Amino acid sequence: MSVLQHLHRNSQRISQWLFPEHCRSCGVVGAALCSACASDWPRLPDEVCSYCALPLQTNGDCSVCSVEAPPYDHVYTHFVYAEPLSTAILTWKFHQHLDWTRALAQTWAESWGDQAPSRPECLLPVPLHARRLRERGYNQSLLLARYWGKRWHIPVRPAVLRRRRNTRHQTGLSAAARRENLDAAFNLRGKLPAHVAIVDDVMTTGTTAAQLAELLRQGGVQRIDIWVLARALREMVPTHA
Ligand SMILES: [Zn+2]
Ligand SMILES: [Zn+2]
């Protein structure tokens, strides 16, 4: 170990001792998100649509997916985009609380037990437009993909999906207007494997996921999973995502 690495490691230990990590939700010392707060995250029921993960009375497909199956295969998440998780995600995403990344990504990962939810050959984070990326300084989907990729040894390929133009904020737009807004918003780069997972923080109407999946299908991908922290329910579309 070099002298610099040694100094770096020791300064990290000292700062952890001086400023111990505390839960950003309740303040208890120990971790950025304590297990009690993580267990408060609203969970989806066992019966969800086999495609888009919306809650159902029984197993099967929802009324939308049974009429026309979406271009992706399956949405993987256990969580509903509702309080207190929704505030946590918004704070993380819009207020530079990057120390939450690990807590959010880890809690999601642990909800699957030891195994990854599926075994894609690579993870594709939903891209931000260059201007949005400059404003925010980071792409939250890439942060999640990096954590999950490292945990389960799956390559992350952030350059495959690209945003063509700066789409308007989706907030307040109808599903049809969202589709139009995203039309021709993405393109593909590079060779693709047969099985991929698109990574995003929240799935709202599913328009972005469907559009990216459509593009990947055209590019020859056979199986497309969607990995998201949380699923917004139709009647409670969030304000920012
Ligand atoms: Zn807590
Ligand atoms: Zn569905």
Automatic annotation (TrEMBL):
Pfam families: DZR_2 (PF18912). It comes from the Bacteria. Residues 15-65 form the Double zinc ribbon domain. InterPro entries: ComF/GntX_DNA_util-trans (IPR051910), DZR_2 (IPR044005), PRTase-like (IPR029057), PRTase_dom (IPR000836). Belongs to the ComF/GntX family. This is Competence protein.
